[in-house]
Amino acid sequence: MKILILGGNGFLGSNLAQFLKNKGYSVTCFDIVYPQKRVPGIQYVKGNFFDETDLIPYLQDAEVVFHAISTINPGNSNVKYMFAYSNDFLQSVKLAQFSKEYAFKLIYFSSGGTVYGNQDVQPIKETATSIPINHYGNIKLCIENTYRTFNRQIGTNIIIARIANPYGPGQDYTKGVGFVDAAIKKAISHDVLQVYGDGSVIRDYIYIEDVCGMLEKLIGYSGQNEVFNLGTGVGVSQKEVIKIVKDIVGILDVNYVASRAIDVPCVILDNYLMSELYEEKCVDIYEGIKKYYCSIISC
After folding, report:
1. What is the 3-class SS of the chain, one letter each residue?
2. 209 close to 230: Cβ distance less than 8 angstroms
3. Percent of the chain whose pLDDT exceeds 70
4. What is the pLDDT of residues 50-63, one digit of tens each?
5. What is the structure's pLDDT at 74?
6. Domain parsing of the chain, residue ranges
7. What is the pLDDT of residue 157?
8. What is the mean pLDDT of the chain?
């Protein structure tokens, strides 16, 4: 099966590409730049997602397209939102049109950590009313809703993957996301980890291999569900992450600063629907952090 990953050189895209290649899929990674390191057996294409002359030839040849492109992140979305609304949203709408025209299945990477906003009931089911509190989550939700409209009106085959808070090899917290990544790397370099608030923020941290395994299951899915939470169903506070990193690495200096209005206090995803497809036990947070740490220092 021919797989095209838009944003294939990012953290999620590059891990997914290697995972699917190892499973025997034919994988093409489409991104604005070539990766620093290429994996044998994967085709890499340098192209602009917003330039259809670059994009369409590869859409025409794909059976399944993963859409992992976003020009903003939660931290900068309240400043850079206009570009995303004007460009990310409109091009994602066109992608839905192309999915019908060129008959490919589209799997969209949404954000389980931001689309729901503040929720009283945890873990959060896919059916919960989503009220994002930052523009990153809102743009994701706008794209989601548009895709579901396409599914209903013209019969597109689009699946929405609401991914929790992934971590693991290849992540780079300096790009605006990745608390676990930041904590490990700050500890290794004997640098200070900056924490917004008092460390009580809770997230559903999921190891990247589990994310890839779940996404692979969505390739062959043909049921009625359009939206899936990709998470562990377990909430972990930033304080707990810090404690684990200190236990594994040995030391971590932390500086607590004022909390941010963009951060939801607690997000834990109900993963029942996904667990019906992905039957593997998710990597425990302690083991995941240890595994990631060892991948960095080659222990």
Report:
1. CEEEEECCCCHHHHHHHHHHHHCCCEEEEEECCCCCCCCCCCEEEECCCCCHHHHHHHHHCCCEEEECCCCCCCCCHHHHHHHHHHHHHHHHHHHHHHHHHCCCEEEEEEECCCCCECCCCCCECCCCCCECCCHHHHHHHHHHHHHHHHHHHHCCCEEEEEECEEECCCCCHHHCCCHHHHHHHHHHCCCEEEEECCCCCEECEEEHHHHHHHHHHHHCCCCCCCEEEECCCCCEEHHHHHHHHHHHHCCCEEEEECCCCCCCCECCECCHHHHCCCCCCCCCHHHHHHHHHHHHHCC
2. no
3. 100
4. 999 999 999 999 99
5. 87
6. 2-166+205-230, 168-203+234-297
7. 97
8. 96
Cβ atoms of residues 93 and 52 within 8 Å: no
Q: What amino acid is encoded at 260 in this protein? A: R
**46 CB-near residues (< 8 Å, 6+ apart):** 31, 32, 33, 34
pLDDT band of 1, cuts 50, 70, 90? very high
CA dihedral over 14, 16, 22, 27, signed as positive or negative? negative
The whole-model pTM stands at 0.96
Interval 197-201 mean pLDDT: 97
CB distance 180 to 241 below 8 Å: yes
Class of domain 2-166+205-230: alpha beta
Contact status, residue 143 vs residue 70, Cβ threshold 8 Å: no
pLDDT digits (tens, 9 = 90+) for 65-103: 999 999 998 888 888 999 999 999 999 999 999 999 999
Q: Which two tokens stand for residue 120?
A: 């009283």
At the fourth CATH level, the homologous superfamily of domain 168-203+234-297 is UDP-galactose 4-epimerase, domain 1 (3.90.25.10)
Tell me, what's the pLDDT at 51? 97
